[in-house]
């Protein structure tokens, strides 16, 4: 899925860091992108029980640096593993959105964006 960015004629991507079910669902929905110009740069990372935290951190940081990604979707339970990296990111683009997984429901109290919004709006 390419979003219209602020560069005329150039689409922007959604990246996904999630479990297999989440990634497959979004890939079937059309978000998959492979840049074959130099090296295959995927816009998704499938995380399983064998995925080390440093790989998630490195992938997240790489997505932040890519100019063709406007949104990063990450399963909230995976976001908890790299919370320290997510909380450092303050820029509006790429937007980082935490989403539920099949086995882990969404908890707004853990979401970095929701905590920031509560702080700005003076909520509980």
UniProtKB/TrEMBL annotation:
Gene3D superfamilies: ATPase, V1 complex, subunit F. Subunit of the V1 complex of vacuolar(H+)-ATPase (V-ATPase), a multisubunit enzyme composed of a peripheral complex (V1) that hydrolyzes ATP and a membrane integral complex (V0) that translocates protons. V-ATPase is responsible for acidifying and maintaining the pH of intracellular compartments and in some cell types, is targeted to the plasma membrane, where it is responsible for acidifying the extracellular environment. V-ATPase is a heteromultimeric enzyme made up of two complexes: the ATP-hydrolytic V1 complex and the proton translocation V0 complex. It comes from Tetranychus urticae (Two-spotted spider mite). Coiled coil: none annotated. The keyword Endoplasmic reticulum does not apply. Pfam families: ATP-synt_F. InterPro entries: ATPase_V1-cplx_f_g_su (IPR008218), ATPase_V1-cplx_fsu_euk (IPR005772), ATPase_V1_fsu_sf (IPR036906). This is V-type proton ATPase subunit F. The lineage of its organism: Eukaryota, Metazoa, Ecdysozoa, Arthropoda, Chelicerata.
């Amino acid at each position: 899925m390419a979003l219209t960015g602020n560069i005329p004629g150039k689409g922007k991507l959604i990246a996904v860091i999630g479990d297999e079910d989440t990634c497959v669902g979004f890939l079937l929905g059309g978000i998959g992108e492979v840049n074959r110009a130099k090296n295959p740069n995927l816009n998704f990372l499938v995380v399983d029980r064998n995925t080390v935290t440093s790989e998630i951190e490195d992938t997240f940081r790489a997505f932040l640096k890519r100019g063709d990604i406007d949104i990063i979707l990450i399963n909230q339970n995976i976001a908890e593993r790299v919370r320290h990296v997510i909380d450092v990111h303050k820029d509006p683009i790429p937007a980082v959105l935490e989403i539920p997984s099949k086995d882990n429901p969404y908890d707004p109290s853990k979401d970095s964006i929701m905590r920031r919004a509560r702080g700005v709006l003076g909520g509980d």
